[in-house]
Specification:
Strand content: 15-25%
Strand order of the largest sheet: 6-3-7
Helix content: 40-55%
Largest sheet: 3 strands, mixed
Structural class: alpha+beta
Distance between the termini: 16 Å
Number of strands: 7
Radius of gyration: 17 Å
Order of helices and strands: EEHEEEHEHHHHHE
């Protein structure tokens, strides 16, 4: 809900989910929130693909959504294979049409996932709370610690940098990702 998709996530086939975002930066921001919201021990892999078109291959019976196809889907599938090969735990990979963009975004995701794996449970909860717009004081109250302890944890853990990166991605002009949808 914090990062508005074009089509929200729905179950497709087996244990896979798909979602459609306006551009890659929105998809990156969305999967960060999902990764932080997961209960301890639950791990997902995310394949993000950027493409210039998405096709509906067919409708899925029940409450699911359509099965999407097209360049964004094929790149997301390739990215998922990369994520699966990377490491245990939550892993994210990105494939776009532009090789330089792919290297930059995918490299950032690799580092971000490494940082996420190192966060303690409390630091993950604090990061999630701050990403939702809660203040440090509100997060401190929820954790029953001081605001100063939140500030120290955010600085020490790398959460401050995650929050800064998320803010930068949110402020990217949509023209940088014009014409590419991300799945």
């Amino acid at each position: 809900r914090q990062v508005e998709p074009l089509l929200g996530a729905w179950a497709t086939v087996g244990d896979e989910f798909q979602a459609l975002h306006r551009h890659w930066a929105s998809a990156v921001r969305s999967v960060l929130r999902v990764a932080l919201a997961l209960p301890e021990g639950v791990e997902l892999r995310f394949g993000l693909g950027a493409g210039d078109h998405v096709e509906v291959r067919g409708a899925v019976a029940g409450e699911g959504g359509p099965i999407l196809d097209g360049s964004a889907w094929h790149r997301a599938r390739a990215a998922l294979e990369t994520a699966e090969a990377r490491a245990t735990g939550a892993a994210t990979a990105f494939v776009g049409e532009d090789e330089a963009l792919t290297l930059a975004v995918d490299g950032q995701l690799l580092l971000r996932d490494h940082l996420l794996r190192r966060l303690r449970s409390r630091e993950r909860r604090l990061a999630g709370a701050l990403l939702t717009g809660r203040t440090q004081a509100e997060a401190a109250t929820a954790e029953r610690i001081t605001q100063s302890a939140v500030s120290q944890a955010v600085s020490r853990s790398g959460v401050r940098e995650l929050l800064a990166l998320d803010a930068e991605l949110a402020s990217l002009p949509s023209s940088l990702a014009a014409g590419e949808e991300a799945q």
